[in-house]
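Appendix B, record 7
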Amino acid sequence: MALFGVQLVVTMVMASVIQKILPHYSFARWLLCSGSLRWYQHPTEDELRNLAGKQKGQKRKDRKYNGHIDSKPLTVPKDIDLQLETKCITEVDTLALYYFPEFQWLVDFTVAATAVYLITEFYYSVAQPSGEMNISVVWCLLVLAFVIKILFSLTAHYFKLEEGGERSLCITFAFFFFVKAMIILIVTENYLEFGLETGFANFSDSAQQFLEYQGLESQGPISKLTFKLILALLCSLIGAFLTFPGLRLAQMHLDALNLTTAKFTQTLLYINFLSPLIMVLLWVKPITKDYILNPTLGKESVPLMSEQSYDTLRLWVIILMCVLRLAMMRHHLQAYLNLAQKGVDQMKKEAGRISTVDLQKMIARVFYYLCVIALQYVAPLVMLLHTTLLLKTLGGHSWWVYPEEDLPCLHEMNSDSVIRAEQIALLKPDTVVETGARASVAQLSMALGGLRTVFSPLLFRGLFSFFTWWIAACLFSTSLFGLFYHQYLMAA
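Structure tokens (predicted):
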């Protein structure tokens, strides 16, 4: 009965919405085509010929090399008086954008998954079902899988480039983040409060008890060294994926600051750029948690909130930062589109000539890669949001402040599911023989209850706290490097 409940109905309805409604009312298409973004159109060959002072009927010079006629391309002076025309992005224009189907699918599916999560959270807060699997977890995991797939395809695209150094830069950052992850994983819980040590200890003890309960002898499923080595490899992979999104964010941040003159918008841009640093500091215990929980007021230390309240506050801060980043998306994308005009202005300062084809490609390339830049901006945001949602659900947190005695049981071996399974298993022998299937149900319930005890909220709390912190740390590290590169190295 729990399987065919409200959650399954919500999932089926949302699947129908994704298939029938979202292709016509796409949030991703609205982000690009709402009229707030303007792109620069490249000039035609006739317009460039008129600006260069050449007549339309003038023939091009032909050169003959070894019997072959080489047609010389039309060139124009680089300091040509060229003024680009702007146009609002329409739905027809998006058909020519690279990675637009991937961008549309990721954004629309993320909206659907977030809606399922909100409805499920409301259902759990009102009905408080017991024994049901939270199906919003599956939606969040699917979102993370799609994000990883898209980031992998974008990184693979950089690897295919023979020139430019993108491949070497990606490999260098992957090794850098691997070393950084190994250093972070040896820091004690007194400084970085992830809960990994507590979660892994609970996982090892529960797994050992579960295997002994099944009649198997084991010292644990995995050693701590292997566990941290796997985490370091995953962190290196995530860091490599977030290298170019962070570098691109730094450039768009600088351009967006130069684009706007409103002080309030500039303040929001600064907060948006520093938001990953704020998320990182939320887990640094001596800087934030110790001062908030036990502030020193005179001679007495009066706690402002409990640990559960601080965990809830941390979740809300991350979500608000994600909302701010989504609100600042238009400013960053418009700053990227202005690179076409910026490139033309830079070209006018140079001497020489440029072919009309190269000039048109330089201007058109900016618009055609808009969705690639949008994916690099949205993908880390989606990762942070849904990793935080998984941290709340699987980690046993709450959106509200509740008393400590009402906390759910986290890691006790004798859970309710195991007790119910044992009660089914202790039925009368004749009843079990009659039904036949009840014994199988009892064994399955005991196995699932044991696995639920092994993979406890303590383990998930440690894992998703660490990954949420790590995504923010990688994004801030690469953005800070990009800021230094574009502001100082490029200027030099």
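Remarks on this record: The first helix runs from residue 6 to 20. Residues 256 and 335 are 5 Å apart (CA to CA).
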